[in-house]
């Protein structure tokens, strides 16, 4: 079973939020990245424009010219229906061995990802209905989930290709964090043992 690392960007931390981009990075090197064109522009704040929209990088996308489902890194730009179709096709390569989906935090990514397919009951069969998450893994390994990732990944700055809050960039980093955690000795952890200090979560992605 392959591990796939998921990240999304969206129009805000509220129940009506809409998807701006989605990325999946597999441990075998295959990647899928999509930028949506039908997110709710009325929800876009100056913060979202600066920290998310400005980090999108697909330009002048033409489906018939630029979409290559056999590419190692598949890129797509279009509406939710196109993303559902192309993402389903991309996941089809894992139909026999199955996949584990890993996210940083299910609260941020999983619901929007599931909505691409119309709900949990419509997810591709090779995928479980519940993801694994790095926030829980951080705490189990004795690290603060809210701490700066640079404290955990010394080469973090070298991993930034498109800027923070780009879903492809963040999915790649999540995979590196997972690999780093594998090298950490597991130990029982109490709340007061967690490394770092939790900070309030911003009200906007």
Largest sheet: 6 strands, mixed
Strand order of the largest sheet: 4-3-2-1-5-6
Oligomer: single chain
Question: Into which percentage range does the β-strand content fall?
Answer: 15-25%
Structural class: alpha/beta
Low-confidence stretches: 193-201
Rg is 17 Å
Mean pLDDT: 89
Secondary structure: number of strands: 6
Terminal residue distance:
31 Å
- Which term fits the overall shape? globular
Amount of helix: 25-40%
- Summed up, the helix count is 7
Topology as a string of helices (H) and strands (E)? EEEHHEHEHEHHH
Topology:
Layout: E1 2-10, E2 19-26, E3 31-36, H1 46-51, H2 63-66, E4 73-78, H3 80-91, E5 99-103, H4 106-117, E6 132-133, H5 134-140, H6 156-159, H7 167-181
Parallel strand pairs: 1-5, 3-4, 5-6
Antiparallel strand pairs: 1-2, 2-3
Describe what is shown at a glance.
This protein has 205 residues and is α/β, with parallel strands linked by helices. It contains seven helices and six strands; from the N terminus they run βββααβαβαβααα. 29% of the residues lie in helices and 18% in strands.
């Amino acid at each position: 079973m392959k591990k796939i690392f998921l990240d999304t960007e969206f129009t805000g931390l509220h129940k009506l939020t809409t998807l701006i981009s989605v990325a999946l990075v597999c441990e075998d090197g295959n990647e899928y990245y999509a930028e949506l064109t039908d997110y709710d522009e009325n929800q876009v704040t100056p913060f979202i424009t600066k920290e998310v929209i400005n980090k999108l990088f697909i330009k002048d996308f033409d489906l018939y010219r630029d979409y290559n489902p056999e590419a190692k890194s598949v890129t797509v730009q279009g509406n939710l229906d196109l993303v559902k179709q192309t993402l389903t096709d991309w996941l089809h390569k894992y139909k026999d061995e199955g996949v584990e989906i890993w996210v940083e935090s299910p609260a941020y990514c999983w619901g929007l990802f599931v909505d691409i397919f119309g709900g949990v009951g419509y997810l591709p069969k090779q995928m479980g209905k519940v993801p694994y998450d790095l926030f829980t893994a951080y705490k189990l390994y004795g690290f603060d989930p809210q701490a700066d990732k640079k404290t955990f990944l010394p080469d973090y700055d070298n991993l930034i290709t498109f800027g923070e809050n780009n879903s492809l960039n963040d999915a790649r980093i999540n995979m590196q964090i997972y690999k780093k955690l594998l090298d950490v000795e597991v130990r029982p952890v109490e709340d007061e043992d967690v490394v770092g200090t939790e900070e309030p979560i911003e009200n906007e992605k």
